[in-house]
Structure prediction request, 228 residues.
Amino acid sequence: MSQPAELFETKSDYAYRQVRDRILSGELQPGAVIQQRELASQIGISTTPLREALRRLKSEGLVELDAHRDARITPLRAEEARDLLELRKSLDPLAAGLAAQRRTNTDLQAIRAALAAVEPLPTPPAVGQLVAHRNLHAAIYRASHNDLLIAALEGLWDKADRYRRLALQAGRTQAARDQKANEHRLLVEYIAAGDSEAAADVMRAHIDTSLGATAVWRLGHENENTGE
Prediction:
């Protein structure tokens, strides 16, 4: 009988996974100072593997470290939200179009199974609900059968989740929630039908009115009000 992968993790890998999950779930808030001894104690490790994990998270843009080893969660920034949105406007429609051209029967089964688990995100969303949305998009990405594109979009999704949480703080109307559900359904239909142009068009509209787009507007509006 095989053993869980976690049993073979290093302490640094374990710390990385634990801290990263806490950042992406919102438990560790953007801009918050990391009390390293306290956090290491909570996770059940020493500070050495925690510092190694923090350096790894710094390379992903989720943590900031200074010369004195002080650490904090990277704040949310309007510029990063904009950059993420711009990239996704280009790459997500490309992935959807390629998925419509290249998907296999196995891909379609995975996409449909992921769609069945998705429900409109409430305020605030549970981690599992965010994961379900990610799983649907990830299944579409994988169906593109372009490894570089898949890796790029997976990395963007990690950073974008924090901005989705920010956008959801203001709540969404039922009409907006229904619109997103319909877009998900149409995406799957067009991919299954092999209609790459329609799939790309729906994905483009999906990103244009996404939570990421709402975060760009909200952060830009806040900066205007504060004069930054």
User: Anything to note?
Assistant: Strands lie at 63-65, 71-73.
